[in-house]
Write a structure and sequence with these properties.
- The chain is of the alpha+beta class and about 300 residues long.
- The chain has 5 helices and 16 strands.
- Strands 3, 4, 6, 7, 8, 9 and 10 form a 7-stranded antiparallel sheet that branches.
- The radius of gyration is 23 Å and the shape is elongated.
- The termini are close together.
């Protein structure tokens, strides 16, 4: 999925103006831009924030059979990764979970957690609580989505004397700063010696409400798709687009487009037409383009 900011020099749309010709995206230019950055939340950890040293929150990984934090979920019988993934008891948490107000469900009951853009941290919680995870997202600046899932983790740090220790089940909540889709639920676990970390009951949710207002602009106004900039007395008002690939520093934040709109006006004012006039960016249309259904940028 790729997203772009489209700029126009109009203040308002004249109802009688004829529709402009389609303003096609320069796909070659978009493809030439840097690829988006995708990340996965770390496995077998109790907490993680991408702005801190991840090692401080890792379960002990020395391979010396050190006890690991106990999870709050039940452990299927037999205690295997296959039984964990197949457990209807665990899957029922996902299928019966409520969708929080202000969110839409992106996917349900997958056997992988997210590998997506703008990873914002991981929380281990005491139950399969979509409302709590939504609350954590609401409290985090620029959080646009969250992922709740169950993870099979070792009770001991796997080592020579305990290559496949008994498991414990953790409830995990991860936060994301860009929209998510089912195709991104690809983080299905890992091997630690003979112990298999596994995922089940993975649900994803996107914010359904409009983004926060941007200083200096009215709105936001939800739209069904990208717009064609209208004509102003027969003149084309389209000023082009900017593309911002999703990364750890760039999520879905229309303020990025607002800054680009103001910067375009500043540039135009410094490079006016021969008569001294220049185009002023007065509104923008922020949207997300998809590539094979996967979000790519803003």
């Amino acid at each position: 999925m790729r997203s772009a900011c489209v700029f126009s020099a109009l203040v308002a749309i004249a109802a009688a103006a004829p529709a402009p010709s389609p303003q096609l995206i320069d796909l070659d230019g978009v493809d030439a831009a840097p690829d988006p950055v995708f990340m996965s939340a770390p496995l077998a950890v109790t907490a993680d924030t991408p702005v801190t040293k991840r090692e401080s929150n890792l379960m002990k990984r020395t391979g010396d059979c050190a006890p690991q934090p106990a999870g709050s979920g039940s452990v299927p019988t037999p205690d295997t990764a296959a039984a964990f993934r197949a457990s209807t008891e665990l899957q029922d948490f996902a299928t019966n979970a409520p969708t929080p107000d202000g969110y839409s469900q992106a996917f349900s009951n997958k056997d992988g957690s997210l590998s997506a853009s703008k990873y914002m941290g991981l929380h281990t919680i005491k139950s399969y609580d979509t409302l709590l995870c939504a609350s954590l997202c609401d409290q985090a600046n620029d959080c646009e989505a969250f992922n709740v899932y169950l993870e099979r983790d070792p009770t001991l740090a796997p080592g020579d004397d305990c290559p496949n220790p008994p498991s414990t089940t953790n409830y995990k909540c991860t936060l994301w700063g860009a929209p998510v889709v089912a195709e991104q639920a690809t983080n299905k676990g890992q091997w630690r010696r003979s112990f298999e970390v596994a995922i089940t009951g993975s649900n994803g949710y996107n914010k359904a409400s409009p983004p926060d207002p941007v200083d200096g602009f009215s709105g936001p106004t939800p739209l069904g798709g990208a717009i064609n900039a209208p004509l102003d007395n027969g003149k084309n008002t389209y000023m082009g687009y900017k593309y911002f690939p999703f990364s750890q520093t760039q999520g879905y934040n229309p303020a990025t487009c607002a800054a680009a709109c103001k910067a375009q006006t500043g540039y135009n004012s410094r490079h006016p037409n021969a008569d001294g006039s220049y185009a002023t960016c007065l509104f923008f249309n922020a949207y997300v383009l998809s590539q094979n259904a996967i979000p790519q940028g803003l």
